[in-house]
Design brief:
Helix content: 10-25%
Largest sheet: 5 strands, mixed
Number of strands: 47
Number of helices: 21
Strand content: 15-25%
Strand order of the largest sheet: 4-3-5-12-6
Structural class: alpha+beta
Length: 1148
């Protein structure tokens, strides 16, 4: 439900709100009224950490006056603080923002998932303004506080999922071998503050957080301390950086504006890097808070942070000083440095592709793939080491051959010292100014500001919590009933009116009752500006006391930035013959606006009618008996007028002998979805992808036909594992038949059983980012034919090669009375599916109880081939659970290096083979109560298999019977190597196995040569046992040696350094100068701490610092520190803390 393009006039396909203000632009020659010129409103997202470029928001320098010569309009830039990069990516993909700052992690995820963005500038590398923060160690001798990463075991650490800090936390957990030992939870920065202080009972208590900005400051001021800053991770190979990203469609339509924007922010950053005034004396004044705020830039940064209780346009002195200090805690690059090949590269063709930024993005995406955050790395996949080819960067649609990393705007904006665009909001051009200025653009902007008495602060802002405004303007409640007036309006309180902002954590509800039974109720959207992550949901029914007592049905889930003059036509009316319920839900992120146009406001307002609503007004579509439109699966809304994309529910009345169409949008045609295998969805080259945040249901009504199956012929391109199309034998997810996700180049057919009311349905849901073409389906009716499927076929007509949500046990003739069935996950010629949407099982099998059994199930394993995992962090597994309150058993493939310490589960053999713990051929599962309760077998798989192919699961299930005799041998059975008995007639039994029962070998010796035979046999046995023992001893000794060798290699890199190398490295110290070498800052810092005048006197601390220095000296250019060394140091003190705040010059 997004407005994909915003424009002020038909000429501009992606400009923003249409309401125009009369803008007065001033320049040195005097004031000039532009009247009703075209204005493009640009939404720019930023983080409120201290960064130089934010100056441009406060001073209005991102705005751009009209360019008459180029026939280009004016641009007005609104700056919108973002809570995290993951949220910002969603808003970019949903057209809520045009340009935004993004952390390296959300940027890499966006590229992998096909969000159509360009990276145009690197804002900064993380230093000590973000990191991992924990509670102060107030423990005494009886407890252990968090002193090192290993102390995070069994602790709860909060982080905004999808952010840079989330990525670095996962990296830390992986490097220190803490997988599965730390409870990581997803909280927004606002929630982190509330969880830390314990004020919100709905949030868990946390021991620490990875965060930045106000959340970081709050923790440090409230009994928290820094454990590891972000900058340290860079030295371990996991740098965090922030980029400026823009939607490709916007950049392509507004290239001169993009040159202007990149030129301004890069010049401000370059100015800060010269804050001592070495190159330009004016730069020293610009970053000196002792100067007037019209001269120094820091005041503009502080005001743009929109701090709570700070007075707009009047930053406090204390905050000026603290933010000025924070500016130096990040790492920046000049424009010329960024155009080097190890960063963005340039446009001259001198850089070999891929550039440094390409590789950095791929590295982050690969890590996210390994962490199961992604199903694939998408367009970057051809650049993985196993896939890369000589021509991987030659195609302009490829990651490194195209313009996803695009230095063009930076190159053009900084060629020479001029710009072909107007000077920000002024109509002067830089060619007109004094060439003696070091930076003519900044100098002239400052002079123009002074001449026109322009404030260094924004004229308009929305949402700052100050005075009586605590958190937005919403005043709605959760139980508002409308039953008096025939029509009227209602909204959240902000109502998308100028200068107003809706509140976070809102949960409001309105119920509109029909005036009389038989009349329809209608609501229409008047105004709607709702940010991604917040929703207005419109339902029909589900309210006691309403006519018909009808079930709750979603008619629409709405969010987006709709222009006022486009409504209500952009969205249809919504009608019902019972009550209409409207719910508004906002998340915990308070949405603010800085330097916004005076007409800007967010929120929503709806118009309702309880009388005179037309019936059977369906634009040629069918209606039900009371006059409500059905819309037939190809359109939506109360009048079936909407077909741009699906909205809520639509109903299809299936007729005998006819085929009906259902689709995700008018653009999802059979032709659009019939494509060759190599024609992947490529961002920027495929039109009309479906929107994010959809929740659409297609109700298939076969109740008046003779059919018991809905035949669904599908063509689809749906983002794999993130967006889902559920085929349901009824109207809710509990009746899911199969889940479709991914892409298919030709049609795929399913036969979905209808429920007792003759209903089946399709339920299409999309998440907050990553879009594809959609789906197109032909629906008709069929009848079941009692088909008997092969073992590796599934479905009502054996149509699927993969297991379904609910499966029937494969009953085959085994000759065993105890055989329950065969469990197999898919056709063995293909790989097991990724099914991360079902944490309790993407495929389920039911085993009916067998009353005369022992309650134990026996598995006879043919194959269990799932991705290996450590035992404390299992992704793919098989779960056995009783519907009663019995225990739950999980089987999985455990990863291992050696037999020792792993492979100890009772269903394993105890052997580590090829990195995996072997599983027994027969396994008895006790405690499930399978004699009295149904048992569920559930297959769980995560988002990817790391590029490997696994054949899934294949095993037989037996009910174990009571033993009919005193032993397996007497019962005529046979014991396996694990002492599990199979009685005669091949049924599983619990007979005890004596030593002489194995393989049912009963030796009867009746001749006079008994002694000779026994002697020979004994000799052979002794020889065999001796040989086996020798081999086992040799193997164990070999494994032990390998284990010790591996441990030594992991624990220290110093063993591989010669004394000559050490002396050479020591000699290099003499040429290190503070701030000029890669590691000079850290080494010089340590040397200063070791001077005789140093306050450090504890010899343990001195020893630790010496070890740190030694690690620094002996590290390589790409790896300063080895976590294994540091954590295994005898002092057990986390030595990183001594220099954690020291900044390093990045080595790329």
């Amino acid at each position: 439900m997004k407005s994909r393009h915003r424009k002020s006039t038909p000429l501009l396909a992606s400009s923003l709100p249409i309401h125009l203000a009369v803008i007065l632009l001033l320049w040195a020659g005097g004031a000039m009224a532009l009247g009703a010129e075209d204005v493009v409103h640009v939404r720019f997202g930023y983080f409120t950490t201290a960064e130089p470029f934010i100056v441009a928001c406060g001073r209005g320098w991102l705005d751009l006056a009209p360019n008459v010569e180029e026939d280009l309009p004016a641009y007005e830039v609104g700056c919108f603080p973002q809570s995290s990069g993951s949220v910002a990516v969603s808003r970019l993909d949903n057209a809520d923002l045009d340009i935004s700052a993004l952390g390296s992690t959300p940027w890499a995820e966006a590229v992998a998932r096909g969000v159509d963005l360009k990276e145009i500038y690197i804002k900064r590398y993380a230093g000590s303004l973000s990191g991992i923060y924990v509670r102060e160690d107030t423990c005494k001798e009886e407890c252990q506080g968090i002193q090192s990463p290993r102390d995070l075991i069994n602790r709860t650490i909060a982080t905004p999922f999808g952010s840079n800090m989330h990525n670095q936390l996962l990296f830390l957990i992986k490097e220190f071998e803490l997988i599965g030992m730390v409870d990581v939870i997803d909280l927004s920065p606002t929630d982190i503050v509330e969880a830390w202080n314990g004020e919100n009972p709905n949030l868990p208590s946390i021991d620490g957080a990875t965060c930045w900005g106000t959340a970081r400051e709050y923790i440090l001021k409230n009994e928290g301390r820094e454990l590891i800053p972000s900058g340290v991770f860079a030295n371990w190979g996991a740098p965090a950086y922030t980029v400026t990203a823009v939607m490709r469609v916007f950049a392509d339509e507004h290239p001169l504006f993009m040159e202007h924007l990149v030129g301004i922010i890069s010049r401000i950053t370059d100015s800060f890097l010269d804050s001592y005034g070495r190159n330009d004396p004016q730069n020293a004044a610009r970053w000196d808070v002792r100067e007037n705020n019209t001269v120094n830039y820091v005041g503009s940064i502080v005001d743009a942070q929109m701090r709570t209780q700070e007075t707009p346009g009047n930053p406090s002195n204390g905050l000026l000083i603290s933010e000025a200090k924070k500016l130096s805690k990040s790492i920046y690059q000049t424009a010329s440095e960024q155009l080097a090949c190890n960063y963005l590269g340039d446009t001259s063709g001198s850089c070999q592709q891929p550039t440094g930024q390409h590789l950095a993005t791929i590295n982050v995406a690969q890590f996210l793939l390994d962490q199961k955050e992604l199903s694939t790395i998408g367009i970057m996949d051809p650049l993985l080491p196993l896939n890369v080819k000589d021509d991987s960067c030659t195609d302009n649609s490829s990651f490194c051959g195209g313009s996803i990393i695009d230095p063009t705007y930076l190159v053009r904006s900084r060629t020479g010292n001029v710009s072909g665009t107007p000077l920000g909001p002024y109509e002067a051009f830089v060619e007109d100014v004094d060439e003696s200025d070091h930076d003519a653009v900044l100098a002239q902007l400052e002079r123009l500001d002074a001449a026109n008495d322009r404030s260094p602060y924004a004229a308009y802002e929305v949402g700052r919590a100050s005075g009586n405004l605590i958190s937005g303007h919403s005043n709605c409640t959760d139980n508002i009933k409308i039953s008096d007036y025939p029509n009227g309006t209602f909204g959240d309180g902000a109502n998308a009116l100028p200068g107003r902002s809706y509140s976070n954590k809102q949960h409001c509800r309105w119920t509109i009752f029909p005036s009389v039974d038989g009349e329809l109720v209608e609501v229409r959207v008047q105004r709607l500006k709702i940010w991604s992550g917040d929703f207005v949901k419109i339902y029909s029914g589900g309210v006691l006391g309403c006519p018909g007592n009808k079930p709750r049905t979603l008619m629409a889930q709405l969010s987006g930035m709709y222009e006022n003059d486009k409504l209500p036509d952009a969205l249809p009316p919504f009608r019902s013959s019972t009550c209409i319920v409207v719910e508004f839900h906002s998340d915990n992120n308070q949405d603010l606006g800085y330097a916004v146009n005076e007409d800007f406001g967010d929120g929503f307002e709806l118009f309702y009618s309880r009388a005179g609503v037309p019936k059977n007004d369906c634009n040629g579509k069918h209606s039900d008996p009371v006059g409500v439109c059905l819309c037939d699966g190809t359109s939506w809304g109360g009048d079936c007028s909407h077909n741009s994309f699906c909205l809520g529910s639509t109903r299809v009345k299936i007729e005998e002998g006819k085929t009906h169409l259902v689709l995700s949008s008018a653009h999802a045609t059979e032709k659009a979805l019939s494509f060759e295998d190599d024609n992947l969805f490529i961002v920027g080259q495929n039109e009309h992808p479906y929107p994010n945040d959809l929740d659409c249901t297609y109700e298939l009504d076969l109740g008046e036909t003779s059919y018991n199956l809905a035949k669904v012929e599908l063509y689809y391109d749906i983002e794999e594992t993130f967006d889902l199309l559920r085929l349901q034998s009824g109207l809710d997810e509990n009746t899911t038949y199969y889940v479709v996700s991914g892409r298919r180049s030709s049609n795929e057919t399913f036969y979905v059983p209808v429920d007792e009311n003759g209903k089946a349905s399709l339920h299409f849901t999309t998440d907050d980012k990553g879009r594809r073409r959609g789906f197109y389906a032909k629906i008709s009716g069929e009848n079941s034919q009692g088909s008997t499927c092969e073992d590796d076929q599934f479905g009502s007509r054996c149509e699927s090669r993969y297991c379904l949500q609910w499966n029937t046990m494969k009953k085959i003739a085994t000759g065993s009375e105890t055989f329950a069935g065969r469990v197999i996950s898919q056709d063995q010629s293909i790989s097991v599916r990724a099914m991360p949407w079902a944490q309790d099982g993407g495929c389920t099998w039911e085993i009916e109880p067998m009353g005369d059994s022992t309650g134990v199930l026996r598995l006879v394993i043919k194959s269990i081939e799932l991705e290996p995992y450590p035992a404390n962090a299992v992704g793919d597994k098989v779960i056995f659970a009783s519907l009663s309150d019995g225990p739950v058993t999980e089987l999985f493939i455990e990863s291992c290096e050696y037999d020792e310490g792993t492979c100890t589960f009772p269903w394993q053999t105890g052997e580590c083979t090829k990195g995996r713990c072997a599983i027994r051929k027969q396994i008895d599962l006790a405690g499930l109560g399978a004699n009295v309760s149904t048992t569920l077998i559930q297959l769980v798989t995560d988002r990817n298999d790391g590029g490997e192919n696994y054949s899934g699961i294949d095993f037989d299930v037996h009910h174990v019977q009571s033993c009919p005799a005193t032993s397996c041998a007497i019962a005529g059975g046979r014991c396996d190597e694990n002492h599990l008995c199979t009685c005669k007639n091949s049924f599983a039994c619990d007979c005890p196995c004596d030593d002489d029962d194995n393989d049912n070998l009963v030796t009867i010796i009746e001749n006079d040569n008994l002694a000779i035979i026994v002697g020979v046999v004994c000799a052979a046995v002794v020889a065999l046992v001796s040989g086996v023992l020798f081999l086992l001893y040799h193997r164990k000794k070999k494994n032990t040696i390998k284990m010790h060798q591996s441990t030594i290699e992991r624990n220290s890199v110093l063993l591989h350094r010669t004394e000559e190398q050490l002396k050479r490295k020591e000699a290099e110290l003499e040429v290190f100068q503070l701030g000029t070498s890669k590691f000079g800052d850290a080494v010089n810092c340590i040397d200063s701490l070791l001077k005789p005048t140093s306050p450090i006197v504890d010899q343990n601390d001195v020893a630790n610092l010496l070890l740190v220095k030694r690690c620094l000296i002996m590290g390589t250019e790409n790896e300063l520190h080895v976590p294994g060394n540091l954590t295994k140091h005898p002092s057990s003190i986390y030595i990183m803390k001594e220099f954690a705040g020291v900044m390093f010059q990045m080595a790329r």
